[in-house]
Amino acid sequence: MPIDAEVRNQKIAVWLKDDHGALYNTWNALLGFYNVKLPNLFRLTTLFSILVTAATSCSAPLLALFYGTISPKQTVIACVALLTLSCVSAYLKFRTSISKVKLDEYAVLVRLGDLLASLPPTKNHRGDTDNQIRACMGLIESLALSVTNTTPGSISVSVLKFIGTGEVRMKVSHRNPGNSRPINRDVIADTLIGYHVCKAGEGPRTLHDTRTLKRYVTSPTQSELSYRSILFIPLRNRDASPRCAQGFISIDSTSPYAFWGKRERRIVVTCTPIIDYVGKVL
């Protein structure tokens, strides 16, 4: 095995085991907080709004001081109290915005997933099955866009499956509707991080920033890598015995740490019926 392949597999194995140490984990948590939560609070428009609110709140005691109604000490106390309340109000609005869940959208996706899961896989024409899988990728894309608060085009959802025997080669078989990235190109399986996630035999895993593995992250279509974070979801047929991996779903985002925190779990849990259906018909 070439040295580069050995190094690549070692790097991926360390990532899979989360064997990084306390310092790395702390730094990773700080980066996640910065990329997901901090910018929303410290945008210029938000800061300007807070300053305007604070100035408006302090205008009453300052006017009272100007007309001699209250003393300077009372003015300072009143201004400090009003500024504190303004900051608390801004923080509570911020917390509400980052934790807001679009319940209607989630409920619809869950019910659609339940409907799909209740339908037995049928021997449809291959084209019909392909359309079903693409539609499922579109549902997952919609949820991922909602959870990550990003715009259409920033999320790509793909299905990669094993081809032939021996789990040696894989290909991108399906993508979400509107995705112009190529499909049906064969690639050596162990060059893909998703392959190692499947072989690990565990659940979904997230690569929060593709730059952490640098050149060991490759595109299955050999195109330029434009995505910064990737959520890998192994596909296993629940009706098969043993539940061997058929491939994986890759949810790619152009933003680093897009699936940080509870976002990964929210996507996976909500989309589980859809993912199971794809595993049945793939």
Can you give a write-up of this model?
- With 282 residues, the chain is α+β, with helices and mostly antiparallel strands.
- The protein is 54% helix and 14% strand.
- The protein has a six-stranded antiparallel β-sheet, sandwiched between helices.
- Strand 5 (229-236) and strand 6 form a beta hairpin.
- Helix 6 runs parallel beside helix 9.
- The chain is elongated, with a radius of gyration of 25 Å.
- 27% of the residues are buried.
The largest sheet has its strands arranged as: 3-2-1-6-5-4
Structural class: alpha+beta
Q: Stretches where pLDDT falls below 50 for ≥5 residues? A: none
Largest sheet: 6 strands, antiparallel
Share of helical residues: 40-55%
The percentage of residues in β strands lies in: 5-15%
Using the alpha-carbon principal axes, give the shape.
Answer: elongated
